[in-house]
Please model this.
Amino acid sequence: MSIEPSPSEHFLPARRALADDVYDAVLGLLMDQVIEPGSRASIDGIARQLGVSPTPVREALARLESEGLVVKKALKGYTAAPLLDADGLRELFEMRRLLEPYATRNAAGEIDAETLDQLERLCDDMHRSGAAAHTGDDRFKDYKDFANQDAEFHRLIALHSGNALLADAIFRLRSHMHQYRIYFKHGVVEETSGEHEAVLEALRAGDPARAEKAMLDHITKSYKRIATSLEEAEGQ
Model:
C-alpha cells in the first residue's frame, strides 16, 4: 500500500533528514508493518509522511533492498518483502546452524581481550534493552537497541573467525532483520541474553568445542522460539 501523510510516531522533521535518520524511519515502517509485507513502498508517499525529499527515501530503499527487506521490480518500484514463512525460516536457521557454530569455534582462543570486553558490554546492554522493550508498546523503536546489540554480538564473533568468506556469508544472511519482523511482534527476549553469556564464557575460556556447542544451542533455541511465534502469528 502507498503511505499517505499522517501524524504518527514515525514522523521525521525535515531538519533531521540525514541519510541514517531516514533509513531508520523507513526501517521502522517496515518492521512495524505500517508498510505491509508485499505492499508497495511508495517513495513519494513515504517522503510526504516523513517530511523529507524523495532523494534520501530512495537511498534508504536501495539500502533496504540490499538487506532483503524490500524488493525492486522494473516499472513497479519497491515493495516490502514478504515475511518469512515456515520453510523460509527453517532454511535461514539451517544456514545459521551450519555457519555460526563453526565460526564461533574458530574464534575461541583467537579473539582478543578488547573484543571479549566489548561482547560483555553488549550482553549487559542487551539485558537493559530487553527489559526496556517490554515496557513499550511492541513497536520497532522499543526493541531497536536490543536487535542491533544482538546482531553486533554475532557480527563481532564472525569477524574473528579467521575466515573472511565465512564472516561475509554470515553477514549476508541478514538473519536478525528477518527474524525480528516476526519475533518481537509475538515473542519474548530474556532467554537470548543468557544464551549469549554462555557463548561469551566459552570464548573467554578459549574452549573451541564449548564455544561451538554454546552457539549451536543458542541458534537451536532461537529457532524454536521464533518458529513458535510464527505459528502463533499465522494462527491469528
Observations:
- The two ends are 21 Å apart (CA to CA).
- Residues 208-235 form the longest helix (28 residues).
